[in-house]
Amino acid sequence: MALHRVNTDDYREQLAQKAERLREAYSRYTDLDPEVFPSPPIHYRLRAEFKVWHEQGRAHYAMYRQGEYKKPFIIDEFTVGSELINQLMPQVLAAVNESETLKKRLFSAEFLTTLSGDALITLIYHKKLDEQWEAEARALQEKLGFPILGRSRKQKVVLDRDYVTEQLEIGARTYQYKQVEGSFTQPNGEICRAMIGWAKDVCREASGDLLELYCGNGNFTIPLAEHFRRVLATEISKVSVNSAQENIRANGVDNLEIVRLSSEEFTQAIDKVRPFRRLKGIDLDSYDFSTVLVDPPRAGLDPDTCAMVARFPRILYISCNPETQLENLAELCKTHRIERFALFDQFPYTDHTESGLLLVRK
């Protein structure tokens, strides 16, 4: 399969094989078959990064196979990318090749798009960006109708804005999110909607309060807040915390607090190992946590966080790495049973699998 093209005829069979592998891997902990959420077969990635290859005086988009970084594959389309990415790619490249200022020492081009039709283009250079670059980038921005961002070493030039605005329709509601360039967002928009919808269904009959670790920009937090009395969410990235605060206001949520703490720090705080100034004004003892939501990085939950999470009646565990989730289940399933089990096909045509679990105390 080409790096930028896919054979959609094989998708359903590949997804069935993923589901069977996941079911087998988790069979020691549950006899449930996973609820399977398929991706659109094409145009599913909302963000993409391309190296820029310079040859015979012209710039080209290029991709590389892992470990073969001296052998570029020149591309002019990216069928797994959103339709908007594919629409913008030739327009940006044509403008770059028409301008020596925009082309010179251009190293990479990044596209961030949304299901609701917004976009941001980031051009990354091995040179200092000057007023001439800014003038020509502004002209391109006006022509495209979407913002351009320039980056080079220790330099970030924001011409208009450094974020996109996403609107996700989930059930009867539409949620609005500010997504800042360089911060984490779910790359597959339809799978993101499926994950949030599944989590809301899991929590539909919930009561009490929700704790969320690794909340990012509030992707899950905001839609789930309506199912709980109060919500406390933590995130270590300052950019994501600031975005989450804006998203809370944009969606009119009034029962949610975000604090900038790592999962390890929150574990220390709730166990009263040491106080944190970032928790000033928040009384942890006033919460009646019935559910904890975790969506950790690929490394999974560290041992102390895993032990803390096991104290909650209900654990909603979204994972981008089933291998580390299985490692955590060796501990969590000593006290909890799996009640819901899902597969989210974030990256079709790859071996990558993402999973969701609801664990309930035995």
UniProtKB/TrEMBL annotation:
Keyword Transmembrane helix present in the record's keywords: the answer is: no
GO terms under cellular component: cytosol
Binding residues for S-adenosyl-L-methionine: 186, 214, 219, 235, 295
> Mind telling me which InterPro entries this protein's record contains?
MeTrfase_TrmA_AS, MeTrfase_TrmA_CS, SAM-dependent_MTases_sf, TrmA_MeTrfase, U5_MeTrfase_fam
**EC code:** 2.1.1.35
List the catalytic residues.
320, 354
* GO MF term set: rRNA binding; tRNA (uracil(54)-C5)-methyltransferase activity, S-adenosyl methionine-dependent; tRNA binding
Q: Give me any GO biological process, just one.
A: tRNA methylation
Catalyzed chemical reaction(s): uridine(341) in tmRNA + S-adenosyl-L-methionine = 5-methyluridine(341) in tmRNA + S-adenosyl-L-homocysteine + H(+); uridine(54) in tRNA + S-adenosyl-L-methionine = 5-methyluridine(54) in tRNA + S-adenosyl-L-homocysteine + H(+)
Q: Give the enzyme's main class according to its UniProt record, as a single word.
A: transferase
Keyword annotations? Methyltransferase, S-adenosyl-L-methionine, Transferase, tRNA processing
Q: Which NCBIfam families match?
A: trmA_only
| Protein family | Belongs to the class I-like SAM-binding methyltransferase superfamily. RNA M5U methyltransferase family. TrmA subfamily.
Family matches, as HAMAP family:
RNA_methyltr_TrmA (MF_01011)
Explain the purpose of this protein.
Answer: Dual-specificity methyltransferase that catalyzes the formation of 5-methyluridine at position 54 (m5U54) in all tRNAs, and that of position 341 (m5U341) in tmRNA (transfer-mRNA).
The name on file for this protein is tRNA/tmRNA (uracil-C(5))-methyltransferase
The organism's lineage is: Bacteria, Pseudomonadati, Pseudomonadota, Gammaproteobacteria, Cellvibrionales
Q: Gene name, please?
A: trmA
